[in-house]
Amino acid sequence: MESQGRGDAGGIDPADQWVFNPETGTYELRLPGARRPDPSEHAAPRPRHVPSPRRGDPHGDPPGGPTTRGTGSGDAPRPEARPPRGRRKAKPKRSRLRKGLVWTGGGLAFLLVVGAGAAWYAYQRLNGNITKVDTGFDNGFSHDEAVNILLIGTDTRTGDGNDSYGGDASEGNDTTILVHFSKNREHATALSIPRDLITDIPECEVTHEDGTQETVPASYGVRFNQSMGALGRDPGCVWRTVQELTGVEINHFMMADFNAVKDLSTAVGGVPVCVSEPIHDEKSGLDLEPGRHELQGEDALAFVRTRHGVGNGSDLDRIHLQQQFLASMAREITGGDMLSSLTDFWDLADTATKALTVDTGIGSIEKLYDLASDVGRIPMSDVNFVTLPVRDNPDEPADRRATVVVDEDRAEPIFRMLREDIDPDAAEETEEEEPGAGGDSAGAGSAAPEDVRVDIYNGGDVIGAAQDTLQWLQVDEGMPLASNRGNAPESQETTTLEYRADQAAQAATLAEIMGLPDSALKEQPGDSAEGEAMVLVLGNDFRGAGEPIEVPAEIPDDVTSIQADDEDVCAE
Predict the structure, then answer these.
(1) What is the pTM of this model?
(2) What percentage of residues in the chain have a pLDDT greater than 90?
(3) Residues 174 and 154: beta-carbon distance below 8 Å
(4) How far apart are CA 342 and CA 330, in angstroms?
(5) Residues 501-520, mean pLDDT to the nearest whole number
């Protein structure tokens, strides 16, 4: 689409179409057919669950045979524990100005929509600014479902001065954040994924600028930032990688490069940041004394790029700086006066859309505004930034560690929280009030472990799951009557336990030990025959012998999180 100049949009002077709205404190471009968001449009099922990928052969578990699991284990230093969160506080009433603004929470790319979405419809020129990529996905968002947006900050270094920022230029995904917006639009979680994470990158289809397509083969055990740029991979490959890593179905992506950091921080007149220790980084050129600073342009870019001048020089420390910067920039955009000025708004919107690359599903100002005005109703006080829990890569020497792997025990509760659209604060309250896994759904009372008779089948993708579980139950839990029956007739996603009425006490004991959810317990009609065993089928939710099948959907207590409205965050 051709760009329109500032003085003309389709033969009409754009300035004549702007009207100041006293309820929101912003100028709004009113065109025929403009759609206002309807808050009543929210009552539909949760998004489809996408299971986490599992390695191995679903039919690799012969009865009693020697097997191996496909998961590793190890210890790693954990971040400083955050104070326990209390019950949800009443939400403060938002000002008239904030009601009309768009808080998009989570990352630089989505902050761009703040600039583009504050008016009902923007100029034709803004449409022409946006770069679009066909990812091959058609997971368009719905107003009455949860929305998951993938935000990508690229390592591309085009533009004046950008070649000075540490090392060779590339087109890798230097920053990646998965933002989950709840179905009821009351909370959001922004999950940062470290670039140095070792993971698998699935095969993906890439569409080139000339329209030709290419299949890029999968890569196994490589750095996450190779999911874009390497072998010609595009944002659709990052999309597939994150979707398989987390099990969260993604609806759209947004991407920006280094220029966006410089241009947007300048457009808002500077972004307030705080550091508790001095930062002197020769590689990025950042030179800051302890205290508060307002950064824009080159200084702002150096702040989000530095890694050698803060903490232990890792990508994890840089992520904390980026989270602070992005939340602060959002507050500047949504809490300042710039959107009450038509000139300032135009400059911000023009800057934002020039830096923006999106999937074709939201490749216009109209679609971006529709999305932004919908999810933007979530106040910043209910937006959490967290970093994917990781541990040191056990395959690297202790004195030369440069990469990390997912800490599955601490990451899975966050993945489940996002997949099932659970408010982390509400999950904590539920955990305090309800009984543990299994509850009393299997009936009152429980049986002694030595009286539990159960046949174990492997219906999932983890090789050796049945044999490992058998050994754990017999040796560690004192259940000699458990038996490995090999592969289930059919594979299944979730673990189930079938029992009869007179086996309810046995089922209650096994459910408690294995952490089975109530939904896993399937009572069968009638009583059991003499010597009849319960039937346990392990599904793709099996994470390892001794690991509870149902993990809490929450941000673990030892995983640091910050709220987007917290102005007192200061990088250490």
Answers:
(1) 0.69
(2) 41
(3) yes
(4) 19
(5) 94
